[in-house]
Amino acid sequence: MRETAVxxxxxxxxxxxxxxxxxxLEQMVETNDEWIVTRTGIRERRIAEPAQASxxxxxxxxVRALAAAGLTADQLxxxxxxTITPDMFFPSxxxxxxxxxxxxxxxxxxxxxxxxxxxxxxxxxxxFVKTGMYRxxxxxxxxxxxxxxxxxxxxxxxxxxxxAGAVVVGEVxxxxxxxxxxxxxxxxxxxxxxxxxxGSRLPATxxxxxxxxxxxxxxxxxxFKFAVRVMGSAAEEALxxxxxxxxxIDLLVPHQANIRIVQAALERxxxxxxxAMVNLDRYGNVSAASIPIALAEAVEEGRAKTGDTLLLVGFxxxxxxxxxxxxx
Length: 328
Ligand code: ACO
Prior knowledge:
With 328 residues, the chain is α/β, with parallel strands linked by helices. The chain contains eleven helices and 13 strands.
């Protein structure tokens, strides 16, 4: 029996209008444009309006992805939202999105794997379609990281932005679709990147707010070392599993955390800079939304075309990592 080919039917992205530039940050913390650009590659990020939550950004990206796929919301069987900044603990952002879209036939849940969440979501969606349980699945990465960023901490506030990216996953013609997935986790490194307040371990109190326990905290240097290591190894493993060579990659779509991390991955893969989709200069790190925004933008710009071989690779809190080789 022929195996079902599962792939991406349409992509969409949405970023808020408001820009936070390096010059703006110079007014807020002891930093400067030159330091931020040379150490990270980031020049500006988008910031959601006070009335916009993650589900609002997710909605805009999802409408565009559905239009690109030529589908209506009532044709969706499942909605997966990867986020570390849900609108609230529950209902899930996926349920809020399901209602807003009018996707009445769809089941819905959120997925938590930090910046690797979108690739975890894709792997989950692809597996559901392969088994025949669902036909069309919306996978969204949506974040309002500005809400969990401490704008007095120069180590982190320069890095993050807001936005959302979405894809519809379903059956595609033979020869296209996902060729491999690699997912990984190392919970022993959880302390390197986290928000420790607000959950059952440390519920919100006046003290937890005063101690800034509801902001993202990070050991940048250790995360950097981890990122360089796993981006390379996950990318190579995804290629091996897919039976592809490095030279087969038309476009690398990496997590957009830091240009030096992307460059290290390119070096390990022996690829030139023009082989990577990079938009972190304009959006910063948007966690689970970074890869789908970059993917949607690559499609919009004609850098990723039907039939191209793409390699998606990311890492994040957890610690987690993920990669996927696919033919668009
Ligand atoms: N402006 C000026 N100086 C700064 C700034 C800043 N914004 N931030 C830090 N510095 C200083 C530090 O205090 C330090 O000074 P010191 O040597 O006197 O102590 C110096 O610059 C160097 O600091 P490092 O931390 O060594 O700088 P590094 O080159 O490692 O860059 C960075 C820091 C950009 C955070 C880098 O480590 C990085 O990108 N790490 C990975 C971050 C990441 O990808 N996080 C993923 C989050 S994803 C998620 O799950 C949400």
